[in-house]
Description:
The chain is of the alpha+beta class.
Amino acid sequence: MPLTRFIILSLLLLLTACAKPVDDVIRFGLSRLPVTLDPRFATDAASSRINRLLYERLVDFDASSQPVASLARWSVESPTTYRFTLGEKGRVFSNSDRLTAHDVKATYEFILNKDNASPHRISLINIEAINVIDDDTIDFILAKPDVLFPGRLLIGILPERLMRESHAFNRSPVGSGEFVIVSWQGDSSLRLRRQSDDQRLEFVAVPDPTVRVLKLLRGEIDMLQNDLPPEMVRYLEQDKGVVVTKRAGSNFAYLGFNTEDELAGQHLVRKAIAHALDRQSIITHVLGDAARPANAMLPPKHWAGNSSLIAYEYDPELARTLLKQAGFGSDKPLCIIYKTSSDPFRLRLATIIQQQLADVGITVELRSYDWGTFYGDIKAGRFQMYSLMWVGIKLPDIFRYVFHSSAIPPNGANRGRFVDSEVDRMIETAESRSSLSEQANDYRQLQAYLLQRLPYVPLWYEDHVFVARTSVAGYQVAADGNYDGLKTVAYQQ
């Protein structure tokens, strides 16, 4: 859409827009609300980011992705015993119960119980026992040494008493974080209260990015982050009523495949798709250069990242050759179904990918769904090809969670049903190492092998774009895109 037309339509829509709310609530526009506010089951980005505000966890990460104490500090009693001692911060749940080591034990034992089907169990199965020493002290006993173990304890702690009562945390969260829930209005809005000063915050679901921007300019929402077409970002940068902040991100966008499918499961097909994609053209012309090409889940600057990976070059002729080798051509065209969310910008990206694949002879049928339906299909393995993004990756244990054969849902996030004995072996070897430098070398080799096998076709790491009205300030954009800046955001005096 030409920019002038966009502005004219914007003005027309503004004439019919609702009036700006008159209250002290700070409103944050999102493309979609969280799926669940139970951290034992949360895997989508919105859920994970908002749960960080509602629940405290034993461990967090600093700016260099190294684990640091949050609820508790830890000591290594032996190679397989980690002792955690709770501090005073974050020790009171929103229902006034005091958080103790018994709550920690109950939270993690729930996840470890395979009957509960927590998707986080796969990253914690090395825990052999959890022993409460006293209300402030708890020991985790491991089956084998794991130098990364403290960084795995990122699940928000829930109250044991309510877990015994089967409380519905997914809609009525009870945590010890800096925010508490006020109300959740279906799929439209979620309201929280900041406990330090009673500041109200409302997450407003506005799936269409154009409407989201219009609501921002009208004053119906105060801020938004990401999921904006580049032309809208450029337009907002010229508006004196808002401030645009950008930060290089580490969120990993990719194409995923069902490797059990007779078409998407063929390595030659996935390799052809990798060579058929002109990623740099999409980054330049669609993402507005607000992204960097990716070759692996971990960015090259991560301590276990691999900066020497050789990307799949855009080579349409080679893609056609690979398809011919796989038995496809004009007499037998390859037809594949590509699932994506109904978010307009994600659908636009999918349409461009559809066209690039069509240029090499691959017929792509696009199917877009609301987020809940789409995400449900992906977790259930009802797809041939899809696109998604991993956010907030800190530890290389993500490879077990995503690619190990034991991590097929509901035991993990191996949604493509990828089974490779060499990948399993490489993951297990890396996990057995006693030093981070040895692990880093193993994980670099693993990423090189995954790039050859292509369970995912890596796309890019997207930057973060935060836009706020000048009436609010104090929000810091996080490198992983979390919403921790809401702990300090406030109206300008």
